[in-house]
Amino acid sequence: MPHPLVPVHPETHGVVLDLAYATANNIAGRPIYDRAHCLLHRDAEVCLRRAVLAAAAAGYRLKIFDAFRPHEAQVLLWHTAPDQAYVADPAIGSNHTRGTAVDLTLVDAQGEELDMGTGFDDMTTASHHFSPEVSVQAQANRQLLLRIMEDAGFVHLAHEWWHYALPGHYGLIDSALLGDLGPMSIQG
Fold first, then answer.
1. 103 marked as part of a ligand binding site
2. Where does Zn(2+) bind (predicted)?
């Protein structure tokens, strides 16, 4: 059975990619993926396309930090996270290891990120979706992202303003089945 993942590219999807786990700019403090591929389950990719159109209608673009994540990367994040309450237990798997989650923000016409009050992967209460600890502007920007993503078919995660996933039950995806798309062997 073929894998259900679809590549997401700036040219085909009108998004900006800044795949944090292919760089040292993440909670592990080092690159986790040695190849920067953005992959989503085909059902999530359809919803992402709707979100891209809604963001464009509002004058913005989506900037993606992470999407499909192999199990090995989930294990590494679990062990390096400063607070495991913000990382899914790899024994259970996450929406990322199912290809149904995307971490993202909004950028303006100049490519500047909208103020969301915290950065991506900020593991504090200020990163909670409806946190009163951030400015009124950041709250409004989070609400805009929420509206765009939920109208497209995603649901939000209360503790991470950047995290959206498809509702429903999807199986874990074995990254060994991806062949040439093998997104990201994990760096040791």
1. yes
2. 96, 103, 163
Q: Is the dihedral of CA 38, 18, 89, 168 positive or negative?
A: negative
Q: Which residue has the higher pLDDT, 121 or 67?
A: 67
* Cα–Cα nearest to 20, from 60, 54, 64: 64
Q: How far apart are CA 167 and CA 29, in angstroms?
A: 30
pLDDT at 135: 98
Backbone angles phi, psi at 172, to 5 degrees: -65, 150
Give 12-52 pLDDT, tens digit per residue: 999 999 999 888 888 788 888 777 789 999 999 999 999 99
Catalytic residue among 45, 72, 112, 160: 160
13 is in an annotated binding site: no
Domain 5-181 architecture: 2-Layer Sandwich (3.30)
Verdict on whether the full-model pTM lies above 0.85: yes
Instruction: Kindly report the backbone phi and psi dihedral angles of residue 10, in degrees, each rounded to the nearest multiple of 5, phi listed first.
Output: -55, -40
Residue 150: active-site member: no
